[in-house]
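Duplicate of earlier report; S41 family peptidase input re-posted below.
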Amino acid sequence: MKKYVFLFLCIGLAFGSCNKNDDSPVIEETREEEQVQPTNAVADFPAQNFMWQAMNAFYFWQDDVADLADDRFDSEESYANFLAGEEDPEAFFYQICNDHIRLVGEENAVDRFSGAVENYKDLVNNLQGVSRSNGVEFQLYLFRDSDDIYGVVTYIANDSDASSKDIRRGDIFTGVNGQTLNRNNYIDLLFGEDDSYTLVMASVENGTITENGKEVALTKVVNFAENPILLSKVIEQEGIKIGYLMYTGFLAAYDEQLNTVFGNFKSEGITELILDFRYNGGGRVSSAVQIASAIYGTNTNDLFIKARYNSKIQSGLTAAQVETNFTDTTIDGTPLNSLNLQRVHIITTEATASASELVINGLAPYVDVVQIGETTSGKNEFSITFVDDVENSFFYDEDREANINPNNQWGIQPLLGRNENADGFSDFTSGLVPRFELSEDIVNLGTLGDPSEPLLALALSKITGASAKFDLTPTMVAPTFVSSYQFKGNNNLSLMDGLIKIDLDKKEENSVR
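Output:
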């Protein structure tokens, strides 16, 4: 920050003359130069100002953060000085979050999921499933007693660059561009700026992961739109028709296609459904409402979820403003294809989060939800996108992009509240626990949608009552170090776009601008 030095001189202007007698001896008085702090202006820190205003109004834990208190500042000057205290907007954002994971670590974190990006358009694109991607999704693991890493491909996005290459689910890799992957380089090598890279492939031989001489060259496509409906099919076993849907993210752009999938299930006469959410990190709540209604029924008088905001917002809301019922149409108004099931089987892993967990929790009071696999992530909060559009209370609206402050393109995705189900339950921070537990086998992932794939085979056995035809016990299980889904913009999100019913016109102005 620049510091300005002002010299206090004897000047005969508004303060009058110094009245020095020219005949008197001149006595030179030496004064120390005083350093005066410049006056900070709120307008000089547009990103920080926007972030504070939005967080003060809407942040779920606003009551618990001293710097977000309504009476935190006694003047605009003190507010401006606070904004000036951190020149980096990203650092400022996490500073005003409540024990954010980036600052205090996972074990001590209260807020694990709020985020900020320098260009709101990147955030908006990611939330629509549009990103720079080659289509390979994977999980990374640490070698025992080592900082070296190996990766296992979990699925290949349809119509991606990788879908035309010799790489598939279950393949293992240990390096990129000839370099061995480790803790220090995996981000740069796999998630860096280079659009192209070559994976060094490996195989498991006698229980040991060994490079096999194969390489796969991949190229990331700019603005690649991943269809979250990875696979849908009907499986018939023991005379029972069972629908299977592998769904990787709640994206509104594919809601109509999702409705068609359920229409096909209905026309096929399925009586059981398996939802595969094992790699689904969440997305738009409106899509979660649709898929839950397609399972349970279009009973628009039945409560699906009830939102809980911070005390400042919650105290002024009516029941109609916090409640979301099941729906009978898509968000575009198309009549919904519903199966009216009394039971659903849902496959989950630790990567299952947010809107996926919302479907499980929201359906629980109405249908028998049989959860199979691993305990979920435990993301029980919802969020929304904010941009510097004061007149719209900072809510992002694609039709108002011209109203966003041209001097501040930051976008933030803070946690606004929690959604509870019709029974009032929302306390699953530690995750939702499966009724039947089974982890994926690193060396035997199987083929998604194939009845012999272990997690699907377990679900089918619980539906038909017949024992699995082979041993499902995994031979190689390890804790995931990190996964590619964690780098997706829509991961760990319950995005309440279109479902927040706060009356923006009646919101009080904040005391400091």
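The two ends are 22 Å apart (CA to CA).

Merging into the original ticket.
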